[in-house]
Amino acid sequence: MSATPLTAPARLLDALVDRVERATALDAPAEKVVASVRRMIRPGPLKDVLSGTPSAHPAHPPLTAVTVGLFTSASLLDLVRADPAAARRLTGAGLLAAVPTVLSGANDWLSTAQAERRVGLVHAAVNDVAVTLLAFGYLARRRGRHGRGAALGAAGVAALSVGGWLGGHLAFALGVGVDTTAFEHLPADWTDVAAADDVREGEPHPGWADGTALLLTRTGSDIVCLASRCTHRGGALHEGDIADGCVTCPLHGSRFRLTDGSVVTGPAVRPAPVLQVRVVDGRVQVRRDEVRALRTKPVGN
Ligand code: FES
Q1: For residue 27, is it within any domain?
Q2: Cα dist. 290→13, 105, 114, 138, 172 in Å?
Q3: Helix, strand, or coil here: 118?
């Protein structure tokens, strides 16, 4: 069977991103940018919206699709030399859409570290160059210099492609934005995890099953069990605080309802997996919800 070779641009980008991931010289400037972004985007409703908490999925990817789609459509019109006014309006709409897109990306970037943070910094820098080119192109179009506007637009879209490739690398290779529990092994069969008397109301009790960390606690007469790994960036929920029927992640403060795992406040967007619980002879036993069983099985044809 013959292998599918990487294309030359992909090989180049792959080699470059490997260097970026290891470029510790980027850490100091990244820290400075992080400090500025943190001052701008504080925990609260705006941060949750930028994270995508109300829609249960990260906000940045769909916003990116809208923004890139508008810019690309303008360039396609330029390519076939059709309707310069429409191309100008599409570019203007793209620049407006770029504002929440950039903010949501910057917000996601705050919760990264090391290689992810370095790649994220370069991803943002390349996209900033792209948007600047597109903004100058828009100004040229408004002055009636459509050829210059189209050329700047094409250069901007080319830069966006590189930025988009890096964004894809962040999501699909480094897992930024992915529910961190997606591939966790939760027990299919009833598994003993604790003595029922050791699980107390208002206190997180750690447990282990099939090598996966769990959070156990009591709500009234019921014992509840959640996967301990925070769906946002993997914080240990069994080290979090419990209050008002919720557990708070110690890393970035997401709150999950204990009874159903739902996200009460972000930046997490996906609920915490809840396990089924029963008590037998004073021992707590748990097993996974079968509906989510695909998490633990390879997917065949
Ligand atoms: S890891 Fe970010 S809120 Fe839990």
Answers
A1: yes
A2: 40, 34, 36, 53, 26
A3: helix
Residues 110 and 243 in one domain: no
Tell me if 47 CB under 6 Å of ligand 1: no
Residue nearest to atom 2 of ligand 1 (CA): 252
- What is the rounded CA–CA span in Å between residue 273 and residue 241? 18
**CA of 267, closest atom in ligand 1:** 3
pLDDT digits (tens, 9 = 90+) for 147-197: 999 999 999 999 999 999 999 999 999 999 999 998 888 888 999 999 999
How confident is the model over 90-139, as pLDDT tens digits?
999 999 999 999 999 999 999 999 999 999 999 999 999 999 999 999 99
Is residue 105, in this structure, part of any structural domain at all?
Answer: yes
254 lines ligand 1 (CB under 6 A): yes
Within the chain, where are the H helices?
8-22, 27-40, 45-51, 60-79, 84-110, 114-142, 146-168
Instruction: Choose among 293, 135, 141, 272: nearest CA to 217.
Output: 272
Indicate the residue type of 91: T
What domain range includes position 132?
8-173
Is residue 230 in contact with ligand 1, taking CB distance under 6 Å? yes
Give the per-residue pLDDT at 210: 83
Instruction: Round to whole Å and give the CA distance between 100 and 241.
Output: 32
CA distance 285 to 277: 6
**Are both 165 and 262 inside the same structural domain?**
no
> Mean pLDDT over all residues of the chain?
93
Q: Closest by alpha carbon to 116, among 26, 181, 230, 182? A: 26
Report yes or no on 161 lying in a domain. yes
DSSP 176-197: TTS-TTTT----SS-EEEEEGG
Give the H or E element holding residue 236.
Answer: none
Per the listing, tokens 């809208």 go with 66
**Into how many domains does the chain fold?**
2
